[in-house]
Design brief:
By secondary structure, the chain is mainly alpha-helical. The protein contains four helices and no strands.
């Protein structure tokens, strides 16, 4: 790591990518909140200006994504019912 770099930016970007790849809604929400927290930490280390404003906007955007209702995929519900039915036959 070189001097003058904000280490929280890379961590926030990694957490944001982790959230986008999450398959579970709760895991995605938690990862978005963690990324938002890291963007805020990055913003606190910056001087007032363009970067600080950008980092704060990223944090706000990710919190809105975390608060958004879960998208229900219509094709998943029948699969889950079928799995539940099959598991009851196996038990």
């Amino acid at each position: 790591m070189s001097f003058g770099k904000n280490p929280h930016v890379a961590k926030a970007q990694a957490a944001e990518q982790k959230a986008e790849l999450a398959t579970d809604h709760l895991a995605r929400e938690r990862a978005y909140r963690e990324a938002a927290h890291l963007w805020e930490r990055a913003a606190t280390r910056e001087q007032p200006g363009k970067r600080k404003t950008e980092y704060e906007a990223n944090a706000e955007r990710l919190r809105e994504l975390a608060d958004a209702p879960a998208e229900v995929d219509a094709s998943v519900a029948p699969l889950e019912r079928a799995r539940a039915a099959m598991s009851s036959f196996l038990n």
